[in-house]
């Protein structure tokens, strides 16, 4: 494969193989039941094979399909444990793995973007990719001034593949809905499509990353690599060596998990105030832990413009929920468009729906666990439960959709880390409206 498969027919056929493959395994499963195998044994085998196919298809297609897989991997902590095990490894692979481009294709892109003399800009350049992303892969090199650098090269055909993938994935949203109970997949796909158009021009990402690098320069807890050079399809940044966050999730010690969780939470809540931007791609593949304990943040292609920081309304509503002021909270939600105009809701029902989400702020230290997040997903996803009915009357205004997804994604990583951290201190300092008195 020399580039992202661009032909719509070929890409659609690959994506269509996902639901077809699941259907085939269901049929095969019934056959195995007839010969005496248990339902539990068959279900586990089917889940494992579905996960394997999910990685193979989304990873090969890269582009929007792989981006969707990365987004789903963040929500893995919300999946019930009996379903999560076979999916966990496959979805986590999508955070950093994809088939590599051949060297001649990489060289062609570099020549197109940096000029025919591109090689003179480097004293060393490794043709073997060091990492892969949804729309590009990263090569290790040495810049002409001796600095070690990371060179991100966009896959040829990425622009055509992105939107085609997401259109097709929307057709199969019901299949993926089963992977993450309680989460609406279609809005996720719609929002991803809007963000990814921006990601195609690496000059936008370079501008975002320069802003973050300047704001966090000298920070003792977070590092953002500096940008060395950029073009529409190629970006060169300082090279950073560290431990992937996925390795901490898998094998980290308790103290390390807690420290990393605190740094991640502080980065999420403080960045909008410090930069006017929200890093909108929170999955473990975009974070490294440095030997000195700092959290290194990567990939600034998807960022939301928040010139005034996080919206004050979020802080006010969170505080009112904590204080049990249900009537005031409902009034604020209505005035900001969070309640559907035709909905008749009691303030107590809305507080019952939102209250459990603010549990991490009721104590000085909160232990983020998979079971806690799974409980929240099951609670709002239970078709027969009162919270499901309340949730159908709530509305998420468009300007809050990305913030909601990023916050939930960050919390998902905290739960994957099994981290115990003082979220209350962080939110009190950085979330506008939370510490106000009224």
From TrEMBL:
Claim: Kinase is one of the keywords in the record: yes
Entry keywords, A to Z: ATP-binding, Kinase, Nucleotide-binding, Transferase, Ubiquinone
UniProt-recorded Gene Ontology molecular function terms: ATP binding; kinase activity
Residues annotated as domain ABC1 atypical kinase-like: 93-308
Cited InterPro entries: ABC1_dom, ADCK3_dom, Atypical_kinase_ADCK, Kinase-like_dom_sf
Presence of the UniProt keyword Transport in the record: no
Pfam family, one: ABC1
Top-level lineage group: Bacteria
Family named by the database record: Belongs to the protein kinase superfamily. ADCK protein kinase family.
Protein name in UniProt: Putative unusual protein kinase regulating ubiquinone biosynthesis (AarF/ABC1/UbiB family)
């Amino acid at each position: 494969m020399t580039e992202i498969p661009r032909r719509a027919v070929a890409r659609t056929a690959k994506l269509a193989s996902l639901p077809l493959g699941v259907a085939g395994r269901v049929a095969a499963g019934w056959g195995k039941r007839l010969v005496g195998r248990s339902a539990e044994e068959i279900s586990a085998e089917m889940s494992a094979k579905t996960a394997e196919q999910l990685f193979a298809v989304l990873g090969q297609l890269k582009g929007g399909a792989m981006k969707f897989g990365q987004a789903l991997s963040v929500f893995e902590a919300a999946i019930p444990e009996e379903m999560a095990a076979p999916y966990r490894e496959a979805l986590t692979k999508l955070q950093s793995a994809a088939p590599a481009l051949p060297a001649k294709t990489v060289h062609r892109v570099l020549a197109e973007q940096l000029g025919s003399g591109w090689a003179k800009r480097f004293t060393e350049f490794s043709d073997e990719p060091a990492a892969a992303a949804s729309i590009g892969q990263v090569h290790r090199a040495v810049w002409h001034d001796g600095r070690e650098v990371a060179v991100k090269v966009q896959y040829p055909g990425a622009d055509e593949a992105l939107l085609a993938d997401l259109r097709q994935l929307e057709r199969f949203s019901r299949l993926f809905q089963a992977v993450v109970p309680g989460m609406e997949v279609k809005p996720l796909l719609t929002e991803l499509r809007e963000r990814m158009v921006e990601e195609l021009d690496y000059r936008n990402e370079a501008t975002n990353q320069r802003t973050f690098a300047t704001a966090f320069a000298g920070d003792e807890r977070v590092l953002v690599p500096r940008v060395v050079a950029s073009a529409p399809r190629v970006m060169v940044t300082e090279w950073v060596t560290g431990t992937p966050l996925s390795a901490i999730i898998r094998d980290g010690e308790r103290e390390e998990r807690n420290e990393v969780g605190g740094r991640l939470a502080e980065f999420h809540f403080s960045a909008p105030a410090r930069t006017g931007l929200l890093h909108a791609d929170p999955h473990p593949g975009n974070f490294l832990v440095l030997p000195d304990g700092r959290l290194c943040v990567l990939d600034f292609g998807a960022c939301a413009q928040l010139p005034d920081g996080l919206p004050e309304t979020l802080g006010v509503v969170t505080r009112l929920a904590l204080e049990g002021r249900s009537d005031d909270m409902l009034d604020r939600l209505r005035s900001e468009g969070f309640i559907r105009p035709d909905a008749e809701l009691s303030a107590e029902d809305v507080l019952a729906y939102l209250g459990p989400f603010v549990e991490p702020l009721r104590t000085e230290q909160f232990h983020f666990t998979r079971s806690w997040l799974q409980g929240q997903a099951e609670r709002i996803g239970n078709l027969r439960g009162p919270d499901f009915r309340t949730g159908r009357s709530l509305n998420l205004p468009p300007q809050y959709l990305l913030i909601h997804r990023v916050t939930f994604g960050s919390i998902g990583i905290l739960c994957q880390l099994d981290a115990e951290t003082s979220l209350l201190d962080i939110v009190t300092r950085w979330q506008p409206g939370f510490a106000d008195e009224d």
